[in-house]
Structure formats: structure tokens, C-alpha cells
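Re: export button greyed out
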Amino acid sequence: MNLIRRPRRNRRTENIRRLVRENQIRIDDLIMPLFVKEGNAIREPIPSMPGIFRFSPDELLKECKEIYQLGIPAVVIFPAIPEEKKDPLAKESYNPDGLYPTVLKMIKDHIPELTIITDVAMDPYNSDGHDGVVRNGEIINDETLEILGKMALVQAKAGADIIAPSDMMDGRVAYLRNILDSEGFTNVGILSYTAKYASSFYGPFRDALDSAPKFGDKKTYQMDPANRREALLELDLDIEEGADMVMVKPGLPYLDIVREFSEHSPVPVAVYNVSGEYAMIKAAAQNGWLDYKKCVMEIMLSFKRAGADMILTYHAKEVAQWLNE
Ligand code: PBG
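Workaround output, generated via the alternate export path:
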């Protein structure tokens, strides 16, 4: 056959494939999410997330040291708060002596170069399980901002490098930027959960923190999975309001949104490969239904190909170990 174009020529050997490869996953791209709870010497497995634990502060520090030694640039930390410390106004979230700020200080003291990204949202501390203040079944936007502001400030004082609001209230990036700046924290960055969808893939995370909403769902603040254009509005707003980095969440079912952001965002784009995505692949691998390592690496590559600069993933430690091999 007289074929001028034979694309297979560029796939013929591994070394040619290396030359023409368009995307790579690097340890530099990875952010490891971690869960912390009160106590000592605890590594509590999370049944719906095999291989992921709730760590007591001492164990979390050990884990952070390993992560840092693997070359992973950043961690994002989520607290599991006992039910008796939750209330409708999430007061524990801005207690300067609470578990979370204490743990941030400890990690900063011991591993100052490890970038700490903190979560700003009410749900781990809210007896209603929502990301905002609830009144008569409604989530009240502007009152929530005041609580998020106090929370962010406590985190910045404790040593957060980057704060990451995951609440999806309107106007929160501008509100938080203003509070941080007025208190002298001009160097603390904001990674906004810009396009966070009302997804069913957060189930295992809510098991980990026992943070599922006590009534209803999060559809009045998290985005409708059907919408693309709306994500671009959120992107415009977050850029205007001063976000340093933007995020799409979940990852795999929203690669089209990652692509949109990578084309339209003037700031770096993160993607969150969420708990349900992790659980799916772990479960299939445990059943012997797919090759865990190869599938995870293919998924990581899909995020890079879609245009993500950074990947929050529960696979981060394993991926770093494989890349170091
Ligand atoms: C809540 C928050 C959630 C996740 C990160 N921050 C869950 C939710 O919105 O209910 C989910 C992360 C994951 O599933 O891995 N502020």
C-alpha cells in the first residue's frame, strides 16, 4: 500500500516513543491529601479507602517526613473532629489551640520546606455536616464567609503556606484575600476549589471525616455536574478575586473542565483525584480485575494531558515511590 502517513513509525520502539511522548508525570506535580485525628500512635484504616489512614499527630508527622523524603512538594491536611466538638457554627474551626492549628505548627517546625495546604470549609466541624451556616434548611452565604475568614487566619498564623477554600460560597476568595492581607499574611497563597461539583464521588472522604451532611445535599453551593459554562464563570470570578491557583474537582469525570481551565486560566490549574476515584481503582485491583500500577499511572497521565499542573491524589505516595524506582 502506498501510504504517505504511517503514524505507527513513531511508535515503533520504546526509545522513539520516549522521544515523541507529549506528557510526563513528575513527582513535582503531586500533592498528597492526609487525614488527622486526636490521639497518639494511631493509624486508623479507612475501610472505603484501602491504604489510607486517619493519623494521630505523631504518626502524621512520620508520614509527612516520608512524603517529604520522597520528594513530594506538598500535602493537604483534613481534620477528623469528634462529634462532641462540632456545633452549628463550627467554632472549633477557629480555635487557635485546636487539633488542626496545633498539627500545622508541629509539621512546620519539623519539616519547614514541606508545603502545607490547608482546607478552609466548615463541614469537618459543623454539626449539620454542611460547608456553610444552616438556617431553616438554607445555607447562608455571607455569614459563612465570616467563619471561613476566622478559620483561614488561624491557619495562616499556624504556618499554612497555602489555604484552600473548598466550601463553594460566593465571594470567598476576595473575602479571604482581604483578611489575610489586612493581617499581614500577604505571602499566604490561595488555592481555590474553583469548579467543585456536587459529586457522588466524595463518599469515602465523608466516611473518613464522618462529615456527611445531616440533611439534604450540597447542590445549592457545589456545582451541577451537567454544567461547563458555569465553571468558566467561577474561573473568571476566582481570578478577579485574587486566587493564586485554581482547582477542578473531581478529576476523571471532569477532564473536559480541566482542559477548559488549562486553556483559559492565567494561573496554575490543580485537579483533585477524589476519594471515590481512589476507591474504585483500589477495589478493582483488589479483585484482580486490573493492573493497579499501570492504571494509576495512566490516570495520572490523563490529568497531565488534560492540562493540569498539579494533582491532588491519594495515590501520590505510591506514584512517587514508583517514579523513584
Ligand atoms: C469538603 C470537602 C470534600 C472533599 C474535600 N473537601 C467533600 C465534600 O464536599 O463533601 C472531598 C475530597 C474527596 O472526596 O477526596 N469541604
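The chain has a mean pLDDT of 97. The button fix ships in the next patch.
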